[in-house]
Amino acid sequence: MFINKLKNFGLIAGLTVMASPAMAEVPGETAFIFNTLLFLIMGAFVMWMAAGFAMLESGMVRSKNVATICVKNVALFAIAGILYYVVGYNLMYSGVDAGFIGEFSMWSPDDSAYLGETPDFGEGDTYAAGSDWFFQMVFVATAASIVSGTLAERIKLWPFLGFVALLTAIIYPIQGSWTWGGGWLSEMGFADFAGSTIVHSVGGWAALTGALILGARSGRYTSAGAPVAMPGSSMPLATLGTFILWLGWFGFNGGSQLALGSAENAIAISQIFINTNLAAAGGVVAAMIASQMVYKKVDLTLALNGAIGGLVSITAEPLAPTGGLAILIGAVGGLLIVFSVTVLDRFKIDDVVGAIPAHLVCGIWGTLAVVLSNGEASLVTQLIGIASVGAFVVVTSSIGWLVLKVVVGIRASEEEELLGLDKSELGIEAYPEFSRS
Amino acid sequence: MKLIIAIVKPFKLDAVREALTAAGVDGMTASEAKGFGRQKGQTEIYRGAEYEVNFLPKVRLEIVLDDDKVEAACEAIRSAANSEKIGDGKIFVLSVEEAIRIRTGETGAAAI
Lengths: 437, 112
Fold this sequence. Notes:
The complex is a heterodimer. By secondary structure, chain A is mainly α. Chain A has helices at residues 2-8, 13-23, 28-60, 66-93, 129-150, 157-179, 184-188, 196-214, 235-254, 263-295, 300-315, 323-346, 355-373, 379-407, 414-419, 421-426. In chain A, helix 6 runs antiparallel to helix 8, helix 6 (157-179) packs antiparallel against helix 14 (379-407) and helix 8 (196-214) packs antiparallel against helix 13 (355-373). In chain B, helix 1 (13-22) runs antiparallel to helix 2 (67-81). The chains are: A mainly alpha, B alpha+beta. Chain A binds chain B through residues 226-231, 294-297, 299, 301-302, 338, 341-342, 345, 354, 437, and chain B through 34, 44-51.
């Protein structure tokens, strides 16, 4: 500020000239290295979110289904990683050209421009091709993780993994190509910085259609329609899982700046970290207050969902908001969680971990909230993006679920469900030495 | 000889043990138990859905002792386990026909 004042008086013209070399771009190769490091490190953080989902879901299911949910989480991460290599990445990023779909081909890295005698590092916006593949791969795994929590405790293992294959190889990449792959939605100006819609709502829509087609857990609702509580097996694990997700989210949103080769980008990523944290904090506090007011008690699981809801809400635009607005956006997400849990129960939609409120409802809210701080975004375009991605995922997911239901069946029998999927599906228990009353 | 069966709140176990030891009781058996009384358990809430916990955790104490110690023992349990709140538990006193120490074969009062 002091320097600005001096500039106004024209007193330090010399200093201004001296300051400009500090603003100069770093050498292209240096920017290339920093950008690549950003993708690799932030991507590894996002990969760890798979552990967060696994622990959150393990804590929220009953102990007789914990080993099964662990298998689903490790398996879906593996399947997503393979299929995104084989078909997903190129379907999302290769040859979209403002259209609706990329190419059906296997991904392979092309780093030839950066090697050899005369490497070309562009305008400081280049990175190793493999680092980008890795960073995008961990996002698709996140979308798949969302589905497993909602459908836990009653879906059969292999049909679930069949759906994960469809989601990660086809559904996610196609809708992702519309925006991040340079397709028609990006041409319209649809703004979704790190994926409130593209990652979280997509997982949420797939979970919602799955929950509707699969049905609620046995005994989850009385014949009169009242919800019956089925408390999860471990609140400490659910809390650990939420903290892991919170940590991973710094990679999710921070890495989505896509570049770290300049002071401008470094400052932006720092702001994204701050806003991401503030939104999560706002979500927790709001969900706790709402829970206390509505139920006269603080429900830990709603507070944990509140953190996720706040994080999802800020994901569509974590850079532009002020800190105060970030808190507010997260807090609205936290409130939406508490109320949409009740609404889902009213319609007998059984969501074991609260993934639909956190990822779908807050994903929609976060995508709309972009217009509060990003002057280039329009409400109409945001609505078009939300609706078109939603319609596409609902239709394709429904087809997938219904085909699986008719061909192989997706639901464990009532007997298997009462016994617990750990015994009926795996023949292994999460806690074989614990007695159960 | 009498058998005292006392159902108390789990977190009162140590206080009851100390009071009984002070009242001259030499041994006891404690086991985890679940039960309900007139209050019929309690209502909890999880993610907006209420559920009944009908069987609340309790500790069940069993003490065999001479007739002349029963009154003091019951008073010790009652004062130590009393929180003046619902669910503090019950004390039952039963007659015991015989007691045998397994190691020595002693019987009656000498066995307890």
